[in-house]
Amino acid sequence: MTATETAFDEALGRYGVTRLAHFTPSLNLRHIIEDGRITSSRDLAENAPEYFSPTDRERFDGHPDKICCTFQYPNAYYLDQARRRPEYTNYPDWVCVLLSPVLVARPGALFSPRNAAAGRGSHLRAGLEGLESCFAERVGGYTRKHRHLAGAATDLQAEVLVPGPIDTSFITAVVVSGVEQAAQEFSRLRMFGLRPERFVWAVSPELFDKNELRRRIHEGVPIVPAPWTPAHDREGA
């Protein structure tokens, strides 16, 4: 481990960050697994336009070569807005991909203590100071209270922009909003021969509910995604 990686690892430990989170429409999941990587919006536009959604075009942060991630919990504010878009009326399901936090040390990563699009990317900073700014006692109008859940940034929309692509080996879990969706996603991927059992699956409706997620983080109520396995696997256990 390099000195830079060690410094980031120690900082993540201080703040209680054990994972990063990335929201994506469930229709993208097949492409991610087939391709073996999570790609940036720029790469999607150039190489897989059929998976390039209108939300990918609105990269007001100015870094379409990077992948937006949040600390410990996903950006449910972004999801709430994205779900309202007409292009997702027939595709309402999303998944939360949890990723290894070591990605914050990737060269070129940028950090924003607020939504990275705020001020068209003017809050973005590189390096350890950039990471630390996301966990400051006060960020804009937000003050970090003593009950604030560990791992969550002070402003819940704080982001790290990770240079893409991100190999699927960095995925630590795939989280969905309910058991019915889990079964559907798993079956669909298995039908295409993509071996979804390679990944850890979990269910957590709280991660997909802006108000409930905010309440729990601010009040210090634990959020633990429930592990999920296919019914036939449970029966055979």
From TrEMBL:
Reaction catalysed by this enzyme: a thymidine in DNA + NAD(+) = an N-(ADP-alpha-D-ribosyl)-thymidine in DNA + nicotinamide + H(+)
InterPro entries linked to this entry: DarT (IPR029494)
Residues annotated as domain DarT: 18-209
Tagged with keyword DNA-binding: yes
Active-site residue list: 59, 159
Pfam family name, one: DarT
Superkingdom field: Bacteria
Residues reported to bind NAD(+): 22-24, 59
Swiss-Prot/TrEMBL keywords: DNA-binding, Glycosyltransferase, Nucleotidyltransferase, Toxin-antitoxin system, Transferase
Signal peptide positions (record): none
Similarity section: Belongs to the DarT ADP-ribosyltransferase family.
Protein name in UniProt: DUF4433 domain-containing protein
